[in-house]
Design a protein that fits this description.
single chain; about 400 residues; mainly alpha; 20 helices; 2 strands; about 75% helix
């Protein structure tokens, strides 16, 4: 059961509805929920069932976990989607007819999927991505020679969005297959920036296998192959590879390589504004986020590095929700190592506010929550509820 009161859930629904300039009547109609039910939920008189909450969230264009903390419908929805994704990509190299969308419609659908990924709205992504992925595969096979590079770029982006839910929800084999598809599409795009982004994402397979030294070598090859940073797009692509290389070097215990790659990323970040480039966030704030990630990857003896960054910097609200959540989960781990239990608890709460489903599926969030439940006496009931929500008990 969620720790949120019915009134808190109702207030969130009402705020989202007003932001979309919908009346209660319009929300009731679009979600197939009675007007009386919508009114009762918004004033806190009724607690919505999972089905009702999912219906309302769908009409508001948000994931249900943003309306009620701990909602598990997203997880069920993602797991129902995984077999469909697997079937969709099985014959990606075989022509299967024409897409059901025009190129412009497909481009808009791919862009929406990217935004769902960046905002960690995995339930919404699970609903949309199978058909988007199927259509982008068809488009690659039917596009004209002039359209083919753009079609391949769309497919690479769609495959990355699909991989987000496969990887986050521990479907490792499917994730590896989606990354193979992304690499296939990147080669057909003949776009070195797309190839650089693909190398960045491919690192997930090395993280999963704990093949950190090999992953670092692969990223360093990708850096060498990346275009010179003559413009902000190329600078961001190369900088993102350096950030990723720094983290995997940290996991490998290679402090020297981690610091070298962070230095390169920091230098490149000076030439661009913080933003999302080809689906990857990069800029001065992203580098700061990775400084914390590297410190945590290096282990407890480097906890002071993470805490020093957190003392002088906070993730801005404009940073993608998935990355903000990741920063606070990693910071919580460092704070636990330092014995700062109250600070770690606050970091977990901020992570959950930023991206509930990302936090819930993060193994380090479970680790920290379990540790807090054993040792943190203040807010014991709230910590226990969080630990239950995140699956730590």
């Amino acid at each position: 059961m969620s720790a949120d009161s019915p009134r808190e859930v109702g207030e969130r629904i009402a705020a989202r509805r007003r932001a979309r300039r919908l009346t209660q009547t319009q929300l009731a109609s679009s979600s197939d929920v009675s007007y009386a039910m919508v009114r009762a939920i918004e004033r806190g008189a009724r607690r919505p069932s999972d089905d009702v909450l999912e219906a309302i969230a769908g009409s508001l264009g948000v994931d249900a976990s943003q309306l009620r903390t701990g909602h598990i419908g997203t997880k069920r929805r993602v797991h129902r989607t995984l077999p469909e994704l697997s079937a969709t990509i099985t014959g990606y190299d075989i022509p299967q007819g024409r897409p059901g969308r025009t190129p412009d419609e497909l481009a808009a659908a791919v862009a929406s999927a990217v935004q769902y990924r960046l905002s960690a709205q995995y339930g919404q992504l699970a609903v949309e991505i199978p058909s988007v992925l199927a259509d982008t595969i068809r488009y690659v096979h039917t596009a004209s020679a002039a359209e083919h590079p753009a079609a391949a770029r769309m497919l690479a982006s769609a495959a990355r969005s699909a991989d987000a839910i496969a990887f986050k929800f521990s479907a490792r084999d499917l994730s590896a297959r989606l990354i193979d598809l992304m690499r296939w599409a990147a080669d057909r795009s003949a776009d070195p920036l797309v190839q650089a982004v693909t190398a960045y994402v491919r690192t997930e397979t090395f993280f999963s296998a704990r093949a950190h030294a090999v992953g670092l070598a692969a990223l360093e090859q990708a850096v060498d192959a990346a275009p010179d940073p003559a413009d902000r797009w190329a600078a961001a692509a190369r900088g993102a590879l350096h950030m990723r290389a720094a983290v995997i070097a940290g996991r490998d215990g290679n402090l020297g390589a981690a610091d070298v790659h962070l230095a390169h990323a920091r230098q490149l970040a000076r030439s661009v504004r913080e933003g999302t480039y080809l689906g990857t966030a990069f800029g001065p704030d992203s580098v700061r986020a990775h400084e914390i990630a590297v410190a945590v990857s290096l282990g407890p003896e480097h906890v002071d590095r993470a805490l020093a960054v957190a003392t002088s910097w906070k993730p801005p609200a404009a940073m993608p929700a998935e990355r903000r959540s990741g920063v606070y989960v990693e910071l919580a781990r460092a704070q636990i190592w330092a014995g700062l239990h109250r600070d770690a608890w606050e970091s977990l709460r901020v992570a959950r506010t930023a991206a509930p489903q990302h936090t819930r599926e993060h193994p380090w969030a479970r680790e920290v929550a379990a540790d807090l439940r054993r040792h943190h006496r203040a807010d014991a009931e709230a910590v226990t509820r969080f630990a239950e929500w995140v699956g730590a008990v």
